[in-house]
Amino acid sequence: MQKAIDQVMYAYTLINHLTPDEVEGTRARLAAHLAELDCDETKLAVEGMRYLRGPNRQVSKRRMARKTGPIA
User: Fold this and answer.
1) Domain count across the chain
2) Closest-CA residue to 47 (of 59, 61, 65, 35)
3) What number of H helices and E strands is found in the chain?
4) 3-class DSSP state of 59
5) Residues 6+ apart with CB under 8 A from 44
6) For 19-37, how does the pLDDT look when each residue is reduced to its tens digit (9 = 90+)?
7) 53, 36, 40, 52: which is closest to 3 by C-alpha?
8) Prediction pTM value
9) Apex CA 21: angle with CA 3 and CA 37, to 5°?
10) Which of 12, 19, 26, 53 has the least CB density, counted as fewest CB within 10 Å?
11) For the segment 42-60, what is each residue's pLDDT rounded down to a tens digit?
């Protein structure tokens, strides 16, 4: 699980500029969330990014077009 946490934190800190205190808090929240799951490292990493990005994140128009077809 530690490898998944490290991978997620590396990617997440590239997306969001966090202070050292924010990194520590985020890592703790992520570890607590992933501890509840029982799957392999890859699935843990994907779920970790999904968890940190949150359900209310903005979806780009380009990504939306791939999911629903071209935007008219």
Assistant:
1) 1
2) 35
3) 4, 0
4) coil
5) 1, 4, 34, 37
6) 999 999 999 999 999 998 8
7) 40
8) 0.70
9) 35
10) 19
11) 999 999 999 998 866 555 5
Using alpha carbons, list the distances in angstroms from residue 43 to 2, 4, 8, 65: 13, 9, 11, 26
- CB count within 10 Å of CB 28 equals 10
The position carrying tokens 């994140």 is: 57
Domain around 12:
2-68
Whether pLDDT at 7 is above 90: yes
pLDDT of amino acid 58: 58
Helices 2-15 & 20-35 angle (0-180, nearest 10): 140
Q: Judge contact between 45 and 8, C-beta under 8 A.
A: yes
